[in-house]
Structure of Exosortase:
Amino acid sequence: MMVNNHSFDSNFEVFLADTPESKAHHYNIRYQVYCDEMGFEDKENFTDEQEYDEWDKNHSVHFLVRDKHHGHWVGALRLVLPNEHSLPFEKHCKLNEKLSGDQYLQSVELSRLCVLKEVRRFSAKKFAPYGILTEKDIPVSSNVTVLHNYKNLGLVLTWGLIRAVALYCTQNNRQDLYLLVAPALVYAIRKVGFSAEQIGEPCKHRGKRIPLKCNIENIMANSMWKKDYKNGFSLYSDLFEEDLAYRKMAYLS
């Protein structure tokens, strides 16, 4: 079978952050994007360079995406589970209809979706006319080395994270996914065939944002997954165990 060297699965992998170390990686990516780059959060409130809020401790599941070839963490996303009868996005927008108690039991919210600016910048065609970056294209200060040049690398990583989220929700009996996102992402989500219902009026929250409801079964049925994004996600703790076993073997040999 011919391997597509420009596929997500050939170049990236998604992990569920289930250890303190992996959550620190996750929070740091958020800090770089939400505090350093975008200024959405005050960096003075996060002197440890880890951005988190009250939803992270007991009501969230955290995901990371890594460049396979060089081990760099390049993107993150969190799923928020309801806190009694609320989700974070509800305080920012007016919904057409309040969620019921039963709906909360089968729902999650996708938030803090972010991809490092170095990765988004390198997706521009000018950096790699042959589809692969070379060392001379990369600033010395960059913490991201050679990455394949996709037409839109930010979206490629987004779909990989959403695929992982859909698998997690399927495994944990969560049927509905809520999002509060910019119009550009609404367009991209619908363009690839996800059914995304607008459930309220657009609001102002870090720019214009639109509340959406997506169905997990619909996401899982998307034809995009037949060609790529088949690996889903792994537990970060399994990665640690594999690394520990490898080191033991190297030591014994």
Remarks:
- The domain at 10-122+146-223+232-248 is CATH 3.40.630.30 (Aminopeptidase).
- Confidence is low (pLDDT under 50) at residues 123-150.
